[in-house]
Design brief:
The chain has helices at residues 37-42, 64-78, 81-88, 95-105, 108-116, 123-142, 149-164, 169-176, 180-189, and strands at 13-16, 49-52, 92-93, 121-122. The chain is mainly alpha-helical.
Amino acid sequence: MGREERLHPVVTAVIYYGEKAWDGPRSLADMMTDMSEEIAAAFCNYGMHLIQIRESEAYAFQNRDVKLVFGACREIFRGNYEKLEQIYGNESIDRELASVIAAITDTPDIADMFREKEGEITMCEAMERLKEECRTEGRTAGRIEGRGEGEKQKASEIIVRMLKKGYSEAQIMEITGVSREEVDAAQAVR
């Protein structure tokens, strides 16, 4: 490398979209085994910038699409469907954004809704359809009490899907009519 040559800066940023809080390393030093004091004194640590979707309300995104994806995903992870509708209900979303939200939140039903319709759909419309689907599934789950093992298995699968979509135990019990024990049993299998 010559005297006049320069390097370009590199910044490491991790966008974490897991449902649980990040518990991994936040720097190069966090990934190292124990170091002696001599090595630690010469060691050049390298930190990373961590952006967690679940805790992203502190960020002021300028891009409308980025802001919408982070905000919608955050509220879906938290199960705040009413707040989601309140904030983003009238926002039009194109298919690509819907696919990103669906992939991050593991709710393929949202992307399917956008595929069915040409162009854009509002978030309110998508959430209403998603809630209606969960209600329909929930009613099916609630009616299986006293039935065979196959139907109990189906109810358990429905409860697990609702949990993955961010519904709380109370919401699942209210919508489906299942007991807390049935929700707990489904969570244990999950």
